[in-house]
Design goal:
alpha/beta, Rossmann fold, five-stranded mixed β-sheet, 8 helices, DNA recombination, Resolvase_HTH_dom, DNA strand exchange activity, DNA binding, DNA integration
Length: 182
């Protein structure tokens, strides 16, 4: 039986230290961590690795349920995958484990709360943006891709896939920029 810790933060400027320290204190023999959004399972390679290597009686431990995911369906699917491998999921704060009969029910309720919290965050963010716009203070999100460079590369005949590779972004982002003001 292995105790495997999973730590996650949403952005690269956030710190994993508190989570990894807590997981170590809980006796996790292995801790995998990543800096990626929890709104879906896309790009969560460390979680996928843990799930692929779980064995019967292993325990996946997270500090809080929202570290596992922000969407109820995703959280329940992760728990289901663990159960299919006869492994368990334990959340430290508040302490809940799928080892017991009531654990599954409590996990479902906590998953719903995590999803609700995500909706509230998005709603507060939208309200803040709308208020800033009304006061003339909104400048938009930080530009991550050099739009001028995308258009220049396209102008010299580079294809969207090549531009995406050169600028280390997705092809979809390139297409969005190229289709702006068309």
């Amino acid at each position: 039986m292995a105790r495997i810790g999973y730590a996650r933060v949403s952005t690269t400027d956030q710190d994993l230290h508190i989570q990894t320290e807590r997981l170590t204190a809980e006796g996790c023999s292995l801790i995998r961590s990543e800096k990626v959004s929890g709104k879906s399972r896309d790009d969560r390679d460390e979680l996928a690795t843990i799930l692929s290597f779980l064995r019967p009686d292993d325990e996946l431990i997270v500090t809080r349920l929202d570290r596992l995911g922000r969407d109820t369906r995703d959280v329940l699917n992760i728990i289901h995958e663990c159960e299919q491998k006869q492994a368990f999921v334990t959340v430290l704060d508040p302490y809940v484990s799928t080892k017991g009969d009531m654990g599954q029910i409590v996990m479902t309720v906590l998953g719903m709360v995590a999803q609700m919290e995500r909706r509230f965050i998005k709603e507060r963010q939208r309200e803040g943006i709308d208020r800033a716009k009304s006061l003339g203070r909104y400048k938009g999100g930080k530009q991550r891709i050099d739009r001028i460079e995308v258009k220049r590369l396209a102008g010299v005949g580079e294809k969207p896939s090549a531009i995406a590779r050169i600028l280390d972004c997705s092809r979809m982002q390139v297409y969005r920029i190229l289709n702006e003001n068309v």
